[in-house]
């Protein structure tokens, strides 16, 4: 079976202190976005990628990757969930769909394999890593209210992998009701669906702050070995 991946990349990064959105920053000779797309399409079971871009994105067409046949470019929306929903509408050939952040260039193929193994089963799932540090809940003044039970806390990564129709329904209903959705799984949860956690490699970081770039470069080099 081959699958389609949706990559939301329509965000204008505000946390990177840079004029260029983070997916267009350069890492080991290529943009983060190119690393992300080329790594996905290099997986033997990923056949096509739908990329959601900002309608006024001036950067993408300058990249060498702009006119490859395995890529469909569409307009993103106001929030990440809108961008993903636009992408899903173009992914009708795929019964299950992977959604992956443009800002995660270091995704090991073995993690994709683990996630794709859910296809045909009863529930979709997401890559996740167990929380390492002790977790505190604080009030607005920065005083600790309590310590959360770490054993059951996970970081939600991407890709997130769900039956396309299920995800499309969950996202459009959640958006219609103004529910805050920061990943695909939260829409599925809100709709009452099950989400399987698949333990992923902690190297699959989301580039968020400038210091993440050096770390991503290190992981990319290690992946090539
Ligand atoms: O801001 P954050 O890092 O959570 O964004 C996650 C992903 O969602 C990024 O790849 C970003 O480009 C994308 N996004 C989008 N459409 C938006 C907002 C964010 O595709 N309206």
From TrEMBL:
Pfam families: IspD. The record marks 150, 206 as: Positions MEP for the nucleophilic attack. Coiled coil: none annotated. Pathway: Isoprenoid biosynthesis; isopentenyl diphosphate biosynthesis via DXP pathway; isopentenyl diphosphate from 1-deoxy-D-xylulose 5-phosphate: step 2/6. The keyword Magnesium does not apply. It catalyses: 2-C-methyl-D-erythritol 4-phosphate + CTP + H(+) = 4-CDP-2-C-methyl-D-erythritol + diphosphate. Its EC number is 2.7.7.60. It comes from the Bacteria. InterPro entries: IspD, IspD/TarI, IspD/TarI_cytidylyltransf_bact, ISPD_synthase_CS, Nucleotide-diphossugar_trans. Keywords: Isoprene biosynthesis, Nucleotidyltransferase, Transferase. Gene3D superfamilies: Spore Coat Polysaccharide Biosynthesis Protein SpsA, Chain A. GO terms for biological process: isopentenyl diphosphate biosynthetic process, methylerythritol 4-phosphate pathway. Catalyzes the formation of 4-diphosphocytidyl-2-C-methyl-D-erythritol from CTP and 2-C-methyl-D-erythritol 4-phosphate (MEP). PANTHER family: 2-C-METHYL-D-ERYTHRITOL 4-PHOSPHATE CYTIDYLYLTRANSFERASE, CHLOROPLASTIC. Belongs to the IspD/TarI cytidylyltransferase family. IspD subfamily. This is 2-C-methyl-D-erythritol 4-phosphate cytidylyltransferase. It comes from Lacimicrobium alkaliphilum. The lineage of its organism: Bacteria, Pseudomonadati, Pseudomonadota, Gammaproteobacteria, Alteromonadales.
């Amino acid at each position: 079976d081959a699958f389609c991946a949706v990559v939301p990349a329509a965000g204008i990064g505000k946390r990177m202190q840079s004029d260029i959105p983070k997916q267009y920053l350069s890492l080991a000779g290529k943009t983060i976005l190119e690393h992300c797309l080329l790594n996905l399409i290099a997986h033997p079971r990923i056949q096509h990628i739908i990329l959601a871009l900002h309608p006024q994105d001036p950067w993408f067409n300058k990249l060498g990757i702009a006119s490859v046949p395995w890529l469909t470019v569409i307009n993103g929306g106001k929030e990440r969930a809108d961008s993903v929903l636009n992408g899903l509408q173009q992914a009708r050939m795929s019964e299950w769909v992977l959604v992956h952040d443009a800002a995660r260039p270091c995704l090991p193929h073995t993690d994709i394999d683990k996630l794709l193994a859910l296809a045909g089963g009863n529930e979709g799932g997401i890559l996740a890593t167990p929380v390492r540090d002790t977790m505190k809940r604080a009030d607005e003044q920065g005083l600790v209210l309590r310590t959360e039970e770490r054993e059951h806390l996970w970081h939600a990564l991407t890709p997130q992998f769900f039956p396309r129709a299920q995800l499309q329904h969950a996202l459009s209903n959640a958006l219609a009701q103004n529910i805050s959705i920061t990943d695909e799984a939260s829409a599925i949860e809100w709709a009452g669906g099950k989400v399987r956690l698949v333990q992923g490699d902690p190297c699959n970081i989301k580039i968020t702050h400038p210091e993440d770039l050096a770390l991503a470069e290190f992981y990319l080099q290690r992946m090539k070995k």
